[in-house]
Structures are given as structure tokens and as C-alpha cells.
Amino acid sequence: MFKINNKKYNKGPVPYEAGGFRSGFTIIEMLVVLAIFAVMSSIIIFNYPKFQAQIDIKNTATDVALQIVQAQRDAVNGKLNGTKIVQDPWKPSYGVYFSKLSKFTGKYNTNEYSNKGFIYYIDSYNFSSIYGCFFNSDVSSSSNECLNQFIMQKGIYVSNLVVNCNNGSNISLDTLDINFTRPTSSPKILDQSSLLDPRPSYCASSSGINYAEITLHSPQNLDAYIDIYASGRVQIK
User: Fold this and answer.
1) How many C-beta neighbours within 10 Å does residue 98 have?
2) Alpha carbon of 107 to those of 104, 193, 197, 214: distances in Å?
3) Among 226, 228, 185, 196, which residue's Cα sits nearest to residue 130?
């Protein structure tokens, strides 16, 4: 006997079923993908200026820290500058000078001394200060201790200078001079507002200086901090 199979066969296109196969995307799926892409792109574009500003201020802080380390290295290694007179060839001093003043108001009233940059100098006569650096005269002169002037870009400037004492107190400064003399890698932390009256100690003698902090500020209201410890360690945060 024959068994009759009554199952009907559809000779047309096979409809989609679970486990079946179909190719391409529907219009709805494409619209969803494009919508997700548009949202992600708008988020990236909106946050890019702030992201770039964060990179700019961190890079500037790194450049400042590296220049301080360069002064430390040059002093410890006894580097001699061929264009400058050095009083004691065995221990030339090097330093980096900062000001939070928009225009320098000390003895040498020039725009070069400002919160928009900093100065790298050689301390030929071991005055432990920037006293022999004159940017309003011939920089190439052997009697001028200025080596280089750095101007910060992207509107970044020095907004604050602070000395932190070991007892926890903070002292705000208008200017800050970080000076290194061979053979020690520890800095002399000075306030050179008057240039002729360096004050090497701000904290009580029983306390001492813990670190000096330089604050950089950007037009996007971002801050970066460079800490110079009494031990000679330089840290960015």
C-alpha cells in the first residue's frame, strides 16, 4: 500500500524562518546604525576642544618640568656655557625663574618677565638668583646670565606660586626662583620679587620647606601643577 503525503510544497520564495537565511539589511536597521553613528560623532566633536585643551596644558606642564630638570642636570654635571663668564668653573649654578605677575613690577620693568613664560639662566657668580639676567639688554653678552626665555602657548599662563612648609602651611609668592648648585641636586627655592633681596626661607626654621608648587592655568579653566620638592624631585599632577 502507498502512503499519501499531503504536505503542500510552496514553489515560490522561501519565507524567512528561525534558522533560515536572508541577505542585506532592512531600511530600519540602516537608520538605527546611522543614528548611533551620528550620536557618537556628536559626542566626540563636542568634547574634542576640552580634550585638546587637556593635552595642551599637560604638555606645557611637562615642558616646564623638563626645563627644571635640565637646570638640575646642568648644575650637577658642572656644565660650562661657552658664551658666559663663570666665576667658579667647578660649580656653576643654573636656575629657572617664574612670575605670576602679568607684568614684572620689580627693578627691571620689562614685559619679558611675565606670567606667560619663564626664564632659564646660568648663575655665573653663584648669587643663587636671577639677578644677573637682563632681558632688556644684549642677551648674547657674556655678562648677561639669561640663557633662554620660554613663552607658553595656547593662552596658558602661571596663575599661582606656592611654597608648602613641612608643618602644612602654604605661603603664596609673586615670583619663584628654582636654583641648583653643584654638587647637590636639591634646589634653592627663592622669592626674587625685589631681585636684590632674595629670601631663601619662608617656613619656620623648625619646619622647613617641603615643596614649591607652580600652577598653570588655561583659557578652558583647566589647571596643571608642577611640584619641586626640597629633595630635588619634580612631579607633575
Assistant:
1) 24
2) 8, 9, 11, 23
3) 196
Sequence-ordered list of residues with C-beta below 8 angstroms from that of 100, at least 6 positions apart, any chain: 115, 158, 159, 160, 161, 173, 174, 175
In order along the chain (237 residues), what is the average pLDDT of each group of 10 residues?
52 53 73 84 75 92 96 89 62 87 52 76 76 58 74 92 88 88 86 51 69 95 95 94
At 27, the amino acid letter reads I
Please give the single-letter amino acid code of residue 30.
M
* Dihedral sign (CA 83, 150, 197, 137): positive
Looking at residue 17, what DSSP letter applies? Answer: -
Sign of torsion over alpha carbons 11, 12, 15, 21: positive
User: What is the three-class DSSP state of 5?
Assistant: coil
Q: Strand order of the sheet with strand 117-123?
A: 146-151, 117-123, 93-99, 175-181, 188-190
- CA-to-CA separations, 186 to 25, 150, 217, in angstroms, rounded: 68, 23, 27
Q: What is the CA radius of gyration of the chain?
A: 32
Nearest to 94 by CA among 163, 149, 161, 146: 146
